[in-house]
Design a protein that fits this description.
With 272 residues, the chain is an alpha/beta fold. It is built from eleven helices and nine strands. The protein folds into two domains: 169 residues, Rossmann fold (3-Layer(aba) Sandwich); 89 residues, Pantoate--beta-alanine Ligase, Chain: A,domain 2 (2-Layer Sandwich).
């Protein structure tokens, strides 16, 4: 496996399967690499802690950086190369293209409301990686459901810029106790981790509650029981992420949660 840093080296992998990450790789990331490997023999993992998608400088500073361990994990999962660019490589002085944000990035008032500027930063860096690598495939995890929807919409809207590019979905990978894997989990103490299980427990309750209002009430009750600071706990249209309206044909629904444990922010979601 090659560790590459230059645009020229990355462009030698044109048509690859691209797995964008911010490092601190865990089993969830490795499952994306392994899934991509079933589609192509050339799997490039990018590791870049993107400053443009952090609205809180302290959160950027706290983000785990474990490059040596990441390289070992990426190779074991089947990566062909790992692209580790400098900030100047991704964001040169002349600036980079910022795609117009799709409705799912601005209308739902979920991550877009809690993290102003976040999706602009995500779209900016992913578009830049797509422009440089020219992949045929890319993959993103379902744990960041709104991000996944945003990037799928971006690729659809700019099919002429990235012709033939397909986005794959990677199922959420969980710890044995149900906690969704996240690079931020390492920041949780033992007691905080137990409280963090409130997210997966709330989602399970929502799945059997019967109706949007009952599901949202059940989620809030469980999150409060676990002493979590709730940012949102809602059931939305799984595609648009907007509130579900009464209709003859019910859309597929997704329960989504964001909550804080002190300085650590956790998100999770599940189909209902």
């Amino acid at each position: 496996m090659d560790c590459i840093t230059s645009i020229k080296e990355l462009q030698s992998h044109e048509g690859c399967g691209l797995v964008p990450t911010m490092g601190a790789l865990h089993r969830g990331h490795c499952s994306l690499i392994e899934q991509m490997r079933t589609h192509t023999d050339d799997v490039v993992v990018s590791i870049f802690v993107n400053p443009a998608q952090f609205n809180d400088p302290a959160d950027l500073d706290r983000y785990p950086r474990t490059l040596e361990a990441d390289l070992v994990a990426a190779e074991a999962a089947g990566a062909t190369a790992v692209f580790v660019p400098e900030v100047e490589t991704i964001y040169p002085d002349e600036g980079t293209w910022l795609p117009p944000l799709p409705d799912v990035a601005t209308n739902p008032q979920l991550e877009d409301a809690c993290r102003p500027g976040h999706f602009a930063g995500v779209c900016k860096v992913v578009a830049r990686l797509f422009d440089l690598a020219k992949p045929s495939l890319s993959i993103f995890g379902e744990k960041d459901w709104q991000q996944l929807a945003v990037l799928e919409s971006m690729v659809t809207a700019h099919a002429d810029r990235w012709p033939g590019l397909r986005i794959l979905r990677g199922p959420t990978v969980r710890e044995e106790d149900g906690l969704a894997m996240s690079s931020r989990n390492v920041l949780l103490g033992e007691e905080e981790r137990e409280r963090g299980l409130g997210l997966s427990r709330a989602l399970k309750a929502a799945a059997v509650a019967g109706g949007v209002a009952k599901a949202e009430t059940a989620m809030h009750e469980i999150l409060v029981e676990h002493e979590l600071a709730i940012e949102y706990a809602v059931v939305r249209d799984a595609t648009t992420l907007e509130p579900i309206r009464s209709s003859e044909e019910e859309p597929s629904a997704r329960a989504l949660i964001a909550a804080r444990l002190g300085a650590v922010r956790l998100i999770d979601n599940r189909g209902t």
